[in-house]
Amino acid sequence: MTSVPNYSSICILRLSAIGDVCHAVSAVQAIQKAHPNAKITWVIGKVEAMLLANLPGVELVVFDKKQGRVALKNLKQTFKGQNFDVLLNMQVALRAGFVARCIPAKVKIGFDWARSKELHSLFINKRIAAQPHAHVLEGFKGFAKAIGVNDYQPSWEMPYTQQDQNTADELLTAEYLSNKLFVISPAASKAQRNWLPERYAALADYAHQQGFKVALTGGPTELEINLANNIIKHSQHSILNLVGKTKLKELLCVLKRASVVLAPDTGPAHMAVTVGTPVIGLYAHSNPARTGPYLYQNYVVEVYHQNLLKQTGKTAQQLPWGTRIKGDDLMSQITIDAVKAMFDHVVQKESL
């Protein structure tokens, strides 16, 4: 039986995105428990660092990709004279590979051959075990296992302050806090992954009829603001519009107050998972078994598998894991009735 090294310094490399860093937090915190004496440093993207600032026991080093070569030069300077026992390179993007080159470490662990893309293999000297058909979070668990962390049940201790919670509660107001709360986080990073505004509105009205208050959340982009306005325009009942009004930590606190969240393939869905809020995920372009809300994959409404078979003639198990499918109208195949039925199921299952 091989003994586990006694690590004194561990570097994590995962720059983006919000959902993925939420998955990674569970692995990092499991590593902390298994290696309590190790100093843990996490190289992370600028936006993602806003969510994870003050993560207990972890030093965040921000890499701002917009700075290009300057960011790489700064990273080299930051780590000058250091030498980590191990680097866990949890990102296969080529940019992450160049970042990995700037991090001095005796051992650089990356993904297995099947998941290596964009020259990932050039920037590592050891691999995690292969995991066919694994969720993204399971991949991160593989990194923890590679440094001696036994299998664990993912859990999260997300960093937010009482002031963050107070601000979120002020935005929600006493009326929304004293009732069951249905939060819709309607926007993904690409418009084609969003459900239709009139259908979001139909679910908002349905939830209202079931005794829920309804709130919309999201960022300050034009796409998100316009989508929220269209949802409100189509709704027959009052909706609290918080789109563009919360910082990431405040959004986390809003999601924590929710009874249930409805979202497409987007970061806030995974943020909700970290604070124990049930999520109804809407999926058409990516496989929810790989990228769905980890603890609530049974609450997903999806048309991915039928469209994958239609477009390729093969199932997800017969294709490279994580194969995405294209189409601007795929999300429109998710019906209002299907999401209502899932809403009812979640309400019953979670005793809401």
Structure description:
The protein is built from 13 helices and twelve strands. The chain has 352 residues and is an alpha/beta fold. It has two domains: 9-146, 3-Layer(aba) Sandwich (Rossmann fold), CATH 3.40.50.2000; 162-349, Rossmann fold, CATH 3.40.50. It has a six-stranded parallel sheet, with helices on both faces. β11 (279-283), α11 and β12 (301-302) form a beta-alpha-beta unit. α7 packs parallel to α13 (336-349). The longest helix is centred in the first third of the chain and has 17 residues, at 18-34. 43% of the residues are buried. The model has no long low-confidence stretch (mean pLDDT 96). It is an enzyme of class 2 (transferase).
Rg computed from alpha carbons, rounded to a whole number of angstroms: 21 Å
* Quaternary state of the chains: single chain
What integer is the average pLDDT? 96
CATH superfamily descriptor of the largest domain: Glycogen Phosphorylase B
Helix content: 25-40%
Count of discrete structural domains = 2
**Major sheet:** 6 strands, parallel
CATH architecture of the largest domain: 3-Layer(aba) Sandwich
Strand content bin: 15-25%
Gap between N and C termini:
48 Å
CATH level-3 fold name of the largest domain: Rossmann fold
Q: Helix-strand pattern, N to C?
A: EHEHEHEHEEHHEHEHEHEHEHEHH
